[in-house]
Amino acid sequence: MKKLLYLASLCLFSLQVLAQTDLQNPLPMDPQVKVGQLANGLRYYIRHNEEPKNRAQLRLVVHAGSVLETEDELGLAHFLEHMQFNGTKNFPKNELVDFLQKAGLKFGADLNAYTGFDETVYMLPVPTDTLDKFEKFFLVLSDWANKASLDHEEIDKERGVVLEESRLGKGAQSRIRDQLIPAVLAGSQYAHRLPIGTDENLKNFDYSSIENFHKKWYRPDLEAIVAVGDFDVKMVEGFIQKYFASIPAGSKSPERTEYKIPIVDSTNAVVITDKEQPYTLVQVYNKVPQLLEKTGADRLRQTAYSLFNTMMSTRLQELLQKADPPFQFGLSNYGGFLGDVNALTVLAVAKDNNIERALKAVMDENQRAEQFGFTQSELDRAKNQYMSGLEKQFNEKDKTNSQAFVSELTSCFLDNVPMTSIEFDLDFAKKHLNEISLSEINALVKELFKSQSRTVVLLAPESAKAQLPSEKQLIAWVNDKNTEITAYVDDAANEPLMKEEPKAGKVLSTKHIEALGISALSLSNGIKVVLKPTDFKNDEILINATSKGGSNLYEDNAYDDASVSSVIAQVSGLGNFSNIQLLKYLSDKISRVSVYVGENTEGLSASSAAKDLETTFQQIHLRFTTHRFDNEAVTGFLNNQKDAVRALNATPTPEKVFNDTLQLVMGNYSYRAEPISVARIEGINPEKALHLYADRFADANDFIFTIVGSFEEKEIIPLIEKYIASLPVKDSEENYVIRPNNPPTGQIEKTVHKGSEDKASVVLNFTGTYDGSKAEKLQINAVANILGLKLIEKLREEESGVYSPRVVSNVEEFPEARYVVTVRFACAPANVDKLIGITMQEIEKIKKQGAEESDIEKYVAEEKLDIQEALKTNRFWSNTLSVYTLNEENLDYLLKLEEHLNQISVKSTQKAAESYLSGKNLIKAVLLPE
């Protein structure tokens, strides 16, 4: 026995040593990632991934951003990013954008880049089904890496575009930012290196300045190629060798400085007010050294922080369920910050400008966690939630979108850390998660709160300046300890979601539509269910239920009650569970159900993993059959809504005033188009609202259910019979109700004067009716999108008058066949009339001549890529089948979505522009400074 005990203890000791050794080992790179480095220093990360099929995500990552700029280079890292699209060695002038658009990439949405403090990243989501074209994308990346033209004429044209981007960001937020950043990042280079730079330098920098910045920092030892997608890894590695190996190493280049953010043992505060700041917000940044995940020990510590964030978030959510919540919103979260620093960020949006109460409420929760720790039940739930998320990722390991991998690999290069595989992640958690004991995480919390490198920031309306606390007072509140604080009590329900099972119904008949892979079920209670099993995801099931009706069924005196009814139902909880108890019960489950009452429809949407599917069906059943009312939670919700609206209306931003005006005009000044007010919220009767919710969901017979995803019909039908076929029905039949709040006819002009910044916003809304056919809907969308391409070319590239013009079409078939084509852009006030004139000229050209063949080619290429990807997603089929089946539309149209694009021609766009962009019904709205 002694020998056995000795051997057992020796084994236990060996396992402990092994575990400790395991934690000290470097984390392994995902073995599916090919990592390499060329002789010139350029690194690359390549991973084969087949989601989505025939697509790849490509990145050029440059480890150089605005923090490296000298005083005469302010804004040039970002300006250089712009210039990369204005000509390179192999793609002069606009040839690069033209090539990429014809390949199906949308300018802004797909074809894009960003500049940060420390990095510049160029993004190409591309098709891989044509080898020659796919290879050419690497030529694009190599030009971006080293061969920008930096043509002087193009630089001068781009000055206007970047200045318009700068103008677009001006206002309360930029004025606040310019005071906040130096306070939070005091003593660091980051405090004075915002990527946008200064307008003065953007207007006046010498050509040599940007050329020198490019030469200094765009070099292979500071660059990486990240490629993830449906391709052969060796082939891509060959492309990288071919296009990047010849780039010179730049032996005389300066060393890249790694700038630090000082962590000092002191607390400073700053009070910032602005005449356009609508709400009062206080933030506390506790800065700590950055934690990078390089070893197992790092991973375990980061996991503990993640558990802390989960538990703190739940505690703060609970406070919002009170009848008088202490804040509008509260946050206490540990995570990445900037540079070499992480931070524990505490944030509170004050109610009624009661800053002390809001701040102390969040600080008290931090103190409660520090003083009494978390409870075992909280930690267990957080661990279960963590594991549930990992298991979900593992189940989808071969269906994970390339976007997720490419983002993480970008960080691998910038932070010099590995990207572990999901297999490793799950195995690591199974081995080590339970090593995070309650005592250990509570000790970690105490350590986290020890940091005294703090900055307190108060943002408030200028009108409240006289009542605001001083910086000294803010620091005192943060340092103040609540002597009356008590331990947290975990209010979690310890019972099943449903105590009694419903009496199951039956599937009476099934109709299969083989071409679409769907089945239409008729249930014994009259409900119709449409099923589409897919293999797009391994463990994703989406459920929609939709019915005609909505808030339009009710007169104006009940409209507000109806509009808020679904929110009242949700904040009240479900069945016997309060909302907080429900959130805790669902915390370790992949099961989400939300309900809504819209203007024309009501319904629910749900998502679920297979293991939690019955829980999801139970929630759906209870949403129809139980109507819990939690007076305290509802009162708290409405009180917070009133306070938020009161703050927004007391200090309205120029954008709010403009959008409210436009909303009123577009809604023909009807009651339903009026901006929400405190008086309207005070007029809401919560019990009546819940009654209206119950009325909308009382008869399940007129709901169409659609279920799409990774399930077998034979396995899901018993759940349908049990939870859907058992729902109560009344055999009532409802239809859409049309209210007189459509846009007015004729030509209407509205000018709003608000704000002090020298900037304007322009909205042109072309409105009207059409015949409701799919063919005409296609043409309206096509001509709107093609107009968008022309305005980028004319307003941005040629005139340098705007940063990002947008043309959006909203085409509805039901309840009425109506359309709105919206042209929107921001610019200098002095250029409003000129740019509107150019816009109307481009519309006239399409009306007279039709769209250019090259623009039609670009639009069709973009749409085909979008359609191909959409058809392989559960979300597309879930949403589309819901609409089609509710309105009894012909599903055959979905079989030839790409073929329908062949209907777009020069002649069809000319006819569509004549009909839908005639200008007979045109609402022109302009926002100008006061």
Rg over CA atoms, rounded to whole Å, is: 29 Å
Largest sheet: 7 strands, mixed
Helix/strand-derived category reads alpha+beta
User: Can you list the strand order of the major beta sheet?
Assistant: 12-13-14-18-15-17-16
Helix fraction, binned, reads 40-55%
Number of helices: 30
How many distinct folded domains? 4
What CATH architecture of the largest domain do you see? Answer: 2-Layer Sandwich
Report the count of strand segments.
23
Task: Provide the CATH top-level class of the largest domain.
Answer: Alpha Beta
Find the CATH topology of the largest domain: Cytochrome Bc1 Complex, Chain A, domain 1
The N- to C-terminal Cα distance equals 91 Å
Beta-strand percentage?
Answer: 15-25%
Low-confidence stretches: 1-21
In round numbers, the mean pLDDT is: 94
CATH superfamily of the largest domain: Metalloenzyme, LuxS/M16 peptidase-like
Q: What is the 3D form?
A: globular
